[in-house]
Each structure stands twice: as C-alpha cells, then as structure tokens.
Amino acid sequence: MAVQPWGEQGPGYGGRPPQVPAKPYAQPQPYAQSYAQPAPMPQSAMRAAHTDRDRTVDVLKAAYAEGRLSADEYGQRFDAASAAQTYGELARLVADLPSGPMVTPMPPMTAVGQPVPQTFLLPPPPVPSRPTNSTAVASMVLGLMGLGLPAVITGHIAKAQIRERNEEGDTMATVGLVFGYLASAVYTLLMLALIA
C-alpha cells in the first residue's frame, strides 16, 4: 500500500500534519520553608522558673544588706523579680550588682542549632597518677621483716629516687627506715650483750 501525501489522507487535514495543542510550561515549585530548621532561641528569652526568681531575690537581699541598694530600690526590684517571666528580665535587675541569677549554661549546639546529647560529649581527660617507687616498697617489707641494715639502705635510696622522679611511696620509705633503724639497734644491743 502506497503512502499518501498529507493532502490526500482525508478531509480535515488540509495538506498539513495534525496540530497538537501545546501544554503550558510548568513553573518550578518554590522550596517549602516549613522544612527549614527553626532558629535557636536566645537564653535571655527563655522562661524563668520559681527557683530562678528566688535566686535573684537572694542576690537583691545580699546587695541590700551590704548597702548597695536603698530600701526603695530593693522594694522595686523585689516586686519586679517576683513578676519577671524570662531570664533576661531577671538579669537586668541584677546587672549592676556583683552577682546575678544562677542561669544554667546552655548545652553545646550543633551546626543545625540542636543540643548535643550528653552521650556524644567527650569525657574529661583522666588525671595521671604518680607511680609508686618500688624501692620504697622493698624498704618497708625489709623493715617489717626485721632486716635492719637492708631496710635502712633501701629506704635512703628510695627517698632520693622519690625526690628526683616525683613518685609516690615516701611514707613507705619512712616506715622502712624506722623499722630498719629499730632492728639495727636491737641487733647492736644483742651483739654488745653477747660480747660482754
């Protein structure tokens, strides 16, 4: 079957290809602002509790007792502190006094403004402990066993090492020296008694 030209395909075409109605161009939708993260609230705008008001009143009482506030000033600030609703209002009442309301510090914030859970915070570094001098331990053991001369010698060596190395064990070295000298004195008396 031969293909007919456009003008011979039947009525209604008029020798031209059929026209397809054009669709309007779809405009891109704007970004939904509802998904954006809310801005973190400043600490001064946070609501104050009864305990915060009580701490502010304590500061005012101390300032009045020290003569920093007159009776009228204290009364006005006391009423304002009782009616304060935010940390900022409480802070303004004691801004010119040596101390202010004990506001709990804000937790560390992430890049999106959310508090970091305590689980993910790094613990404080451990405090290094000083090692115990082994010669001091030996001196104490020898002194308790009654070996006077070895306990005295190791005790003096341990004292010198503890000073140089900043180690623990000074008490043990002292105990070794005391028992070492006592044992040496006892042995010396026994030797003199035997000789006599």
SSE-based structural type: mainly alpha
Helix content: 40-55%
Report the count of strand segments: 0
Question: Rounded to an integer, what's the Rg over CA atoms?
Answer: 44 Å
Assembly type of the chains comes to: single chain
The number of helical elements comes to: 6
What would you note in describing this structure?
- The structure is a single chain.
- The protein contains 6 helices and no strands.
- It has 196 residues and is mostly helical.
- Among the domains are: 44-104, no CATH class; 134-195, no CATH class.
- Helix 4 (134-144) packs antiparallel against helix 5.
- The longest helix has 26 residues, at 170-195.
- It is elongated and about 110 Å long.
Set out the fold topology:
Layout: H1 50-65, H2 71-83, H3 87-93, H4 134-144, H5 148-165, H6 170-195
Helix pairs in contact: 1-2, 4-5, 4-6, 5-6
Question: Which key phrases capture this entry?
Answer:
single chain, 196 residues, mainly alpha, 6 helices
Could you provide a short overview of the structure?
By secondary structure, this protein is mostly helical.
